[in-house]
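This section describes the prediction task in plain terms. A model, or a person checking by hand, is given the sequence of a single protein chain and must write out its three-dimensional structure as a string of tokens. No templates, partner chains or ligands are provided. The sample shown here is typical of the held-out split.
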Amino acid sequence: MSDLNSKNKALMRRIYEEMWNGGRPALAVEIFAQPGGVERFVSEFLLAFPDLQHTIERMIEEGDQVAVRFSARGTHSGQWMNFVPTGRSIHYTGITLARIVEDKIIEHCTWWDKAGLMEQVRG
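The expected answer:
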């Protein structure tokens, strides 16, 4: 494993361990080249699921790209979209693919089970 890949994987870990699990959406500024939408999304999501915890299930890297398969668990304690708080435990999985240049994520896409989460919080 090259130093570049080690740094890239460490950067991806920060998303899940520090930004999400640590409840620090403002770290998006340090991680993403264009952090505005990410910081806003994480902040709003954590208002609805304040105890949300992500687990990295697998991480694969190739060149300047890193793929992460993750799972998340938490409690629906606040308003999310049109769903009032239910107090229910939730769980979902997803995959993020990111391209990293000069210690910043410059492109990323996350696919996650939003429909499954919506089923879990339906009242």
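For orientation: The CA atoms of residues 69 and 95 lie 4 Å apart.
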